[in-house]
Structure formats: structure tokens, C-alpha cells
Amino acid sequence: MHITVIGSGYVGTTIAACFADLGHDVTAIDIDEEIVDTLNDGQSPISESGLENLLETHTGNRLEATTSYDAVPESDVTFLAIGTPSNDDGSIDLGALEAAVEATGEAVVDKDERHLVVIKSTVTPPSIETVLKPAVHRGADGNENIEIGMNPEFLREGSAVADFLHPDKLVFGASSEWGMDRLHAVFEPLLEDHDAHIVETDPQTAAMIKYANNAFLASKISLVNDLGNICKEFDLDAYEVMEAIGLDDRISEQFLRSGVGWGGSCFPKDVNAIIAAAREEDYDPAVLEATVEVNDRQPERMLELLADYVELEGARIAVLGLSFKPNTDDIRNSRAIPVIESLRSHGADVVAYDPVAADEMAEKFPNVDYAKTAVDALQDADGTLVVTDWDEFSDLDSEFDEMATPVVIDGRRCVERRDGIVYQGLTW
Ligand SMILES: NC(=O)C1=CN([C@@H]2O[C@H](COP(=O)(O)OP(=O)(O)OC[C@H]3O[C@@H](n4cnc5c(N)ncnc54)[C@H](O)[C@@H]3O)[C@@H](O)[C@H]2O)C=CC1
Ligand SMILES: O=C(O)[C@H]1O[C@H](OP(=O)(O)OP(=O)(O)OC[C@H]2O[C@@H](n3ccc(=O)[nH]c3=O)[C@H](O)[C@@H]2O)[C@H](O)[C@@H](O)[C@@H]1O
């Protein structure tokens, strides 16, 4: 098949490279010329394991990038992976996606055969009828051959290629048998040697499945953090408790790691978006509001623990880990942001270290001192906050002896408790 993928950001680049790897001819379309040039050089605009290899193999062969929508009408199906960022009230800003959908419609205005336009972006269910369908039909000037489908994406940053190629489930949202068949045809090569559940549904339900998935996972972590905070009050180890409850198949062992909370470009955005969409309907989503509230509290709890041992005003505090999770330089909604803001508001001097995300954070906090190594950050520090669970932090040991006062508050359970340091886990 010939597939056009509009938007070559995180999701778009990953799916374009993977579709090519599955044997499809792919045209990747982005308005950003720099991204297009990077892709056509066989390089990746994002850092993701395995992606560079796929791009090197398929660029100029089964994959090409362009800023033009000309390939859209020649293709069998178009996927849209455009950002849907948050507005100030938590709702999603559909402006960029709406413009891209309309441009897609314009590109197929004269197409005589049916054309499937699949939304990969995360969008609220009502927006398919109220925003996206009108946009495509406006662009296509009422051409009845255009159908909108929904195929939400569940990949994680750091394992995007592997997640895309080995999904637990594929969710196909289509409003006709033809649209459903087309989605099956796209993913047929993937299913040849990989077993995944297929969920066939309408586009709105498919959109809701994506929000429910992320809201559930974020709420699971917040619940684990709430329970973990109670464990801490009782002097109990939340990890021992969670390991036991994870043995129950109904709960599962995954996403039970308590600590400083969830960040990233999606959980915060998506939980807030579904809350805002629910409020639009005059529904008050009490559990999801609590999910956000518990998450917002965790960074402050780290500081409260630290303040039990260190006078924060004028203290030199090391922050280990700046990215929202390990193996990425992405700092969007990283828990390190509220941690640093709070330390500074208490008058502490922050020295931060991250193996890859320091430059990103320096754009946000130019006045923070950024160390080249973890040991440099620990040197003469009055306290340390561990915010991201990078592997290299688990290897730290005698390095803590370099601190002026060896107080370590671990927000991710990645440092070993040892003699000679004051060690406090956030929930253990
Ligand atoms: N990042 C992730 O891990 C995941 C993201 N998602 C969802 O996927 C969607 C896309 O997310 P990302 O890939 O992270 O966004 P992104 O911001 O990394 O990429 C969007 C790309 O679209 C391009 N673009 C904007 N307007 C355009 C237009 N009119 N025509 C062509 N290209 C245009 C931009 O230049 C950019 O390269 C969002 O709705 C997000 O919630 C879903 C699952 C995982
Ligand atoms: O919609 C999205 O964009 C994606 O959002 C998440 O993926 P991602 O944000 O890349 O990262 P996760 O591995 O889910 O971690 C999210 C946050 O939760 C935290 N987390 C995760 C697991 C856990 O047990 N405890 C915990 O605090 C991580 O440290 C991180 O800050 C989902 O896992 C993906 O399925 C989804 O496609």
C-alpha cells in the first residue's frame, strides 16, 4: 500500500519508518523543512532506539519526506499525527490538526475513489464530529468519497519502535466496513508474525479508548502514590506492598512504581483534556481530579522530607535527573520542574545533573548550575533529590561521601540505602 503520514514529530516519524519496514510505500509530510531534510538524509529528527536504523534502511527506497501534500490523493490511506497541545484550561488545542485535516481534504478534492483519513493524534471524542469532519469536508468541498477513521497510538517514548511493532492491541475506529477493511490491510503485515488484540469500533469510541487508557494508567500511579504516602506514614515499604498486590492478575504488576509522580508530554495533557471535556458536559470527574492533585503533591513531599534534615534557605541541593523518565532528553512536564521551582522558592541553590537533558532544562532554568557528572553535582551538596530513575544513579555509592551533609531523598527508588548516608525514600 501507499501510505501518507502527515506530521513527522514523535509519533509521525515512528509510524512512517515502521510502516516502511512493514513493506508499505510511505510519504512523510511535514510543514517543517528542516525535519523533512533530516528525514530525507536518512536521519531521525527525534532520538529513539531503532529509529535511525529503520530510516537509514528505508529512506530513498520505500520512504520519502516532503512538505507538499501532492502525494495524498495518490496514496491509499492518510494518517495524521499532528500535535494536540493543552490550552490554559486543560482542553486541547486542535488548531494545527484542524488545519492539517483541512489541507488533506483540499488535496483529495478531485479524488474519485474513496479515501480514508485516519486520525492518529489524541483527540476528544466529540471533536471528531464537531471539528475534524467539518474540516475535511470543507477542504474537500463536500467530496463524499472521504471518510474519517481513528487509530489511537499507545507507544511510549524510549521504546516507541518496539511498542509500535509489538502492540498489545490495535484499536480500529471506522464508520464503514470499507474503512475497517482498509485499516486491517494497513496492519496486516504487522499481524503476520505478531499476535495483537484487534478492537473494531467507531471513531468516537476509539478516541475515548485512548483517553481511558492514559487516564487509567495515570490514575493507577496516583493511587499507588496515595497508598505509598500512607505506607510512609506507617513506616512501611510501599514497594513490598505493591509487589504483593501486583500478583493479583486483576491488578497486574506494571505501573506500580510509586515516587515523585508522572510527567511527560501525554499523561498530564490527556488527563487534563478529558477532565476539561467532561466538564464541558457538566460532569465533574472527581477521581481524575484527585489523580492530578496527588501527582501535584508528590514533588512537595520530597522537599518536606528534605527539610526535616536540611535548612533549605542558602543550602546547596543536588537534583539528580531532569528528564520526565529515563532514556529520553524530554523534559516536558518532568517532575524535576516543580522540584527545582520549589527549591528555589525556598532559597536553595540548585545544582542539577542529567546524562542527556541538561541542555533542555537550561533553556527553562538558565540560572541553575548544571554539573557535568553526578559526582560533580554531589560535591559539597547539603542534600540530594533523586528525581529520574536513570540506571547510572543506581551505581552511585561512595560518591555520596563527597557531599557536605549526605542526605539523600529518593523519589524513584533507584539509590541503594547504605551506611554513612541519611537515606529517605519517598514512599518507603
Ligand atoms: N509523543 C508520544 O509519545 C505520543 C503522542 N501521541 C499523540 O500523537 C499526536 C502527535 O504527537 P507528537 O508526535 O508527540 O507531536 P509532535 O509535536 O512531536 O509532532 C507534530 C508534527 O506535526 C507537524 N505539523 C504541524 N502542523 C502541520 C501541518 N499542517 N502539516 C504537516 N505537518 C504539520 C509539526 O511540524 C511536527 O513535526 C498528539 O495528539 C499526541 O497526544 C500519542 C501517543 C504517543
Ligand atoms: O499517550 C502517550 O503519549 C503515551 O503516554 C505514556 O507513555 P510515556 O509518557 O512515553 O511514558 P510512560 O513510560 O508511560 O511514563 C509516564 C510517566 O509515568 C511515570 N511512571 C511510570 C510508571 C510507574 O510505575 N510509575 C511512574 O511514576 C514515569 O516516570 C513517567 O514520568 C503511555 O505509557 C503510552 O501508552 C502512551 O502512548
Automatic annotation (TrEMBL):
Q: Which reaction(s) does the protein catalyse, per the Swiss-Prot or TrEMBL entry?
A: UDP-alpha-D-glucose + 2 NAD(+) + H2O = UDP-alpha-D-glucuronate + 2 NADH + 3 H(+)
Keywords per UniProt:
NAD, Oxidoreductase
**Domain UDP-glucose/GDP-mannose dehydrogenase C-terminal as annotated: residue spans:** 318-417
Q: Which domain of life is it from?
A: Archaea
One example of the protein's molecular function in GO is: NAD binding
- Residues annotated to bind NAD(+): D30, T84, T122, E157, K269, R332
Task: Please name the SMART domains in this protein's record.
Answer: UDPG_MGDP_dh_C
Q: What is its EC number?
A: 1.1.1.22
Keyword NAD annotated: yes
Task: Give the residues the record marks as binding substrate.
Answer: F154, L155, R156, E157, K210, F255, L256, R257, S258, G259, G263, K325
Q: Which GO terms describe its biological process?
A: polysaccharide biosynthetic process; UDP-glucuronate biosynthetic process
**What positions does UniProt annotate as the active site of this protein?**
C266 (nucleophile)
What pathway does the annotation place this protein in?
Nucleotide-sugar biosynthesis; UDP-alpha-D-glucuronate biosynthesis; UDP-alpha-D-glucuronate from UDP-alpha-D-glucose: step 1/1
What PANTHER family has UniProt attached to this entry? UDP-GLUCOSE 6-DEHYDROGENASE TUAD
Q: What is this protein's record name?
A: UDP-glucose 6-dehydrogenase
Organism, scientific name:
Natronorubrum aibiense
